[in-house]
Structure formats: structure tokens, C-alpha cells
User: What shape does this take?
Amino acid sequence: MENKKTKILIVGAEALPFAATGGLGDVLGSLPAALAREASDADIRVVMPLYAKVGAEYREKMTKVAEITVKLAWRNQYCGIYSLEKDGVIYYFLDNEYYFDRDALYGFFDDGERYAFFSRAVMDMIPAIDFYPDVLHANDWQSALTVVYNKLYYKYPGMKTIYTIHNIEYQGKYDKYILGDVFAIDNSDLSIVEYDGCINLTKGAIVCCDRLTTVSSRYADEIKDAFFAHGLENIIKANAEKLSGIVNGIDYEYYNPLKLDEKFSAGYRTFSGKAKNKAALQEMLGLPTDTDAPIVSMISRLASHKGFDLVKCVLEEALDNSDMQFVLLGTGEKEFEYYFCELAAKYPTRVRALFEFNKELSKKIYAGSDIFLMPSKSEPCGLAQMIACSYATVPIVRAVGGLYDSIKSYPAPDSNGFTFDNYNAHDFLFKIYEALELYGNTSEWDKLTLRAIKSDFTWSKSASKYMEIYSKI
Assistant: This one.
């Protein structure tokens, strides 16, 4: 008799390669496939909105599975359910053009209503497709209401829920007077989602879920502290017994130096391709082709919590006291864009600032750089430091969140980068100087870059830990 498969439904607002804006999309694009590979006794499925951003190449492969009417408070809305299979995983896409046919994923005045509809539609989808999960795994505030709705109203028999916090800064906070009208929650249940005088969807999911996870072990400890928790520290501490942290992985098929024009890997015969990628990057950006000049890079959203105030304090000093070249790729706060524009004008042969979101260009910068900066004030997991390692680029990170869990500081025997503890500009600068000095010691630098590229950030380890949690609950 064939064993019954464990049925897992992963719910989230975005997933690569269909539509994504950041780390959540990376996770939902990679973790489900890793789960399917690791657990042959599990049926892994994912559901997300059918945004306008989902390309025709994927829409053409979709099958319409069902059509339902979703009741959200006084609204009765159409929802089409489409599916396609990718990497052993069935992805469902929920269609409603009023909510999802827009030129971006987020940032609209009615985001609360949009994702309340999405969450309600997920719950109504379950009987429509005849897939009753053993575990529903919701991710971030946009799908938090699936956990709340199941606990309060749907109560699907035997279905357990997991809620993953990818970044606790984004909680889904709204005026409590729209509780019934927008979120279709009875006033008698207000206490479930009320926190600090308003509706807080993340708080609701935390108290309603069976297990609570976040994206690194260090971050799981940090969010019990007011400095990191953005007001939710007391709720986190009250639910600490069901909290655990699992660090994310990266997609080595996508971030693969063997897919570059100038290939390289940890193997001795092909590692020389790293230098060719550096020369190609210098040529592409119009920088002097200087093998001895280390290229230091940042690829990031330009936001203060990413450590750019520290960068502003020390970068010119580092440029003035070394022959380093600096490359930035990213978009964000205008204050930082103006700063890097001025810096590039002041150092025209040594600094390049590229204000765009470009994944293909990012891979060229990772591959051609020697040192990668990530001095974050907070970082739930972080993927950039792992990607840098996969291209033998040495990261300098602050030992916080997932950066602490993934990067071990030189000169430790298992080091794959440099770390500093305090959120302090001079501690950061000291590590930059330490890395630049080591760069001049070719033998030691080569050993460090080899350890970096051999770092194991595959999804298989993370997937095994998730499957362990699924099994336990």
C-alpha cells in the first residue's frame, strides 16, 4: 500500500521567477523545489497572486483549475485559480484583475484589502481544488490572515499552520475601525489582531500559528529584543516556545560562476577565471584595468538600515588610503543616491555608482569584485553575502542576524569573510583595512577566497530543517 504523502501548502505574496521584489521571492522560488527534492514523501504546493508582472511565458503554461467567488465582508469577488508545475512543485496563481492587475506588487493604498482578499481566496481555494494541506505555511504579513482565518473561522480538520517572519519591520498595521469592513473579522475577535492600539496582522498570525519561524537562528533571538522587534518584542517573547530560526539558502543554479562567459569554480584549473571576470568588469565600467587594485562592491537597496550611514562615514577615507576601486549597484533613498553621485564625481577613475535593479549586472559585479560590503544595522538573513561567497568574493559584514550565522571572520580556520560586532564606523573601517592588507598577501587571500567559494549555502540543509518542523507538528 502506497504511503500517504504529507501535503504542504506554502502561501506567499511573491515567488521567483514569476514575480518578485526581494528576499521573500527568492525564498519562495527556491525552498519549495528543495523541499520536493529532499522529501519524496511530501506533496509541495505554492500559492501566490496572479500579478500583471507574471510574464506571458508562464501564463501560456498555466491551466485553469477552478473559478470561485470569494466573500470578503460585504464584497463578493471573482477569483480564478490557475496552476503550473515547475521543479516538481505545483504553483497556484489566484486571479483577480481588480486587485492584482497593477504595475507593481505593493505600495498601494488598498494593500490591506488586496491581501485580505488573497488570504480569504487561499482558504476558499482548498476545497475547490480538493487539496487539504496537513501544513499551511504562511510567509510575512501579506499572507498572515490565512493563519488567522483558519484559527477563527475555517478550522480545517487536521491542518496545522506555520508562520514565517522574513522581516519583522513589515507587520501589516491598520486602523482597527476597518476590522470588519476590510478584513472580515468579527469585532468579538478584535483582541486576536489588535496590538498597540491598531490592527497588526503579524501579531495575529504569531498568536494563531502552531509554529513560528524566522530566517536565521540569530534573528530568532534578536527579535525578542526591542532594538530589532519594531514593537513586537513582548508578543515574540510570549510565544518564544514555538519560535525557531532557519537560515535561508541560495540558488546555486542561478548564481553559478560556471555559467559566466569566463567560467571559474573552486577547482584549481578553472579558478583563474576570477581574474578575467575582474578585468571584464573594469573594462565594462570604464575603470583602469589594474589587477593589483582590489574592487570593493555593494549591491543593495539604498536604505539606512543597510548600513549606508556607516559607509558615508568611512568610504572616502578608505579610498584616500588605498588603491581600491569601488562599485555600487542599487536604488533607494535619494540621500544616498546623491552621496554616491558626488563620490563618483570626486573619484572619476575609481568609483562607479549604478542606480538600477539589474540581476544580470549584479552577477557580473559579484564575479568581478574582490571584497563585498554589507554593514547592516539589521539583517534577518541576507542573501547577498552568500551570493558573494559563491563567486569567491570576500564579504565584510556586521555580525547581526543571518550575517552572523553565515559568515565566519578571518583568521578563524573556517573563516569565509570578515565580521565586526558594533554598529560603529571605525570598527567597520578597521575591517576594510584588514581585508585590504590581506589582499596584498596573495597566498593567504587565495586561501580565504577558496573557503568562501566552498561555503555551503545550499537549500538542502534548510529544506531538511523545514521538513523536520512539518513532521513534528
About this structure: The first strand starts at residue 6 and ends at 11. The chain has two domains: 6-249+460-472, 257-457. The mean pLDDT is 95. The longest helix spans residues 111-129.
